[in-house]
Amino acid sequence: MKDILNAPFMVEMIRTTTNMYAHGWDERNGGNISLLLDDAEVEDYLDTSAVLRRIPTGFKAPELEGKYFFVTGTGKYFKNVQYAPDVNLGIVRIADEGGTAELLWGFADGGKFTSEFPAHMMSHVARLKADPKNRVVMHCHPANLLAMTYVHTLDEREFTRTLWQMCTECVVVFPEGVSVLPWMLCGTNEIGEATAEKMLVSRLTVWSQHGIYGAGKDLDETFGLIETAEKAAEIYMKIAHLPRLNTITDEQLHITAEYFGVRVREGYLNI
Ligand code: 2HA
Ligand code: ZN
Questions:
Q1: Do 123 and 254 lie in a common domain?
Q2: Which of 91, 115, 139 is the last residue of a domain?
Q3: Considering every ligand atom, which ligand is closest to the CA of 188?
Q4: Mutate which of 29, 81, 138 to test ligand 1's pocket (most atoms within 8 Å of Cβ)?
Q5: In which residue ranges of the chain is pLDDT below 70?
Q6: Of all atoms in ligand 1, which is nearest to the CA of residue 32?
Q7: Are residues 2 and 102 in the same domain?
Q8: Ligand 1: which atom is nearest the Cα of residue 139?
């Protein structure tokens, strides 16, 4: 059995959480990540018949039966992951049609998966329907995206168009746009279901006055997606109160998307 602390998924998870903390996106215990692991990846590092604990989840997701997830822990600080990965992270296998998470590694202080586990698992179900290559769901609290939800309309089309107008590459990075949820109570199955519904159509879902959810095929791509949206929101927050003399026009967004071969969300450009 190979040493799990050297597994590529472990190294990437530690780097990603550390980097997200450094970006100021994950104050205190803010933020959470779940990464779907391939069976073969897990079997190289763990005896998958040795279940440490069986933890109830409080929801059903039969589509995920038997799947392995690498997840951040509830109440844990991204800042500390690099120093104690086995306390702050855990690997679980989904059982009982989603009702139970079987702990195979980690959460060594008796802890468990993130309070946002329902939103993560339901989002995985949705993203796998949209893209079978999806592996990551990532949540964090980037300041400018949050700030924007106080001063910008929450209309998804308008929110998306504003972000696209802030940096030329945005329309290429998230051509399907950004979904937006109104303020909702976090940690619940309700916000999980609402997020998953949005995730069927976009890889980014803003939680107003709270943060953002991103999804992608690996940690790097998902980080980059959130990073790009947050950069656009930062520019918006720098210019929103100033007279706007120039912008990226719908025609320019259109020719950018055509040039890079991406399909822009239907009806989002006035062309
Ligand atoms: O894990 O970010 O939304 C802390 C949170 C909850
Ligand atoms: Zn949060």
A1: yes
A2: 115
A3: 1
A4: 29
A5: none
A6: 1
A7: yes
A8: 2
| pLDDT on residue 256 | 98
For 128, the token pair is: 């796998």
| 163 vs 176: CA distance, rounded Å | 12
* Percent of the chain residues topping a pLDDT of 90: 100
Mutating to test ligand 1, I would choose from 26, 115, 190, 208 the residue with most ligand atoms within 8 A of its C-beta, which is 115
> 97 and 146 share a domain?
no
User: Ligand 1 in contact with 188 (CB < 6 A)?
Assistant: no
pLDDT score at 144? 99
**Ligand 1 pocket, 73 CB below 6 A?**
no
CATH number, domain containing residue 55: 3.40.225.10
Do 91 and 178 fall into the same domain? no
Distance CA 259, CA 135 (A): 28
- 84 and 147 in one domain? no
pLDDT at 182: 98
Q: What is the pLDDT of residue 168?
A: 98
Beta carbons of 216 and 225 less than 8 angstroms apart: yes
CA–CA distance, 82 with 17 (Å, rounded to integer): 8
For residue 114, give the ligand 1 atom closest to its CA.
Answer: 1
pLDDT of residue 97: 97
For residue 29, give its domain range: 1-115
Question: Do 110 and 129 fall into the same domain?
Answer: no
Tell whether ligand 1 has an atom less than 6 A from the beta carbon of residue 216. Answer: no
pLDDT of 191: 98
Last residue of a domain, one of 115, 145, 178: 115
Task: Say how far apart CA 53 and CA 45 lie, in whole Å.
Answer: 18
Q: Is 63 a catalytic residue?
A: no
Confirm if 195 and 123 have CB atoms less than 8 A apart. yes
- Among candidate residues 116, 156, 230, 234, the one labeled active-site is 116
Packing angle, helices 156-166 and 219-239, rounded to 10: 90
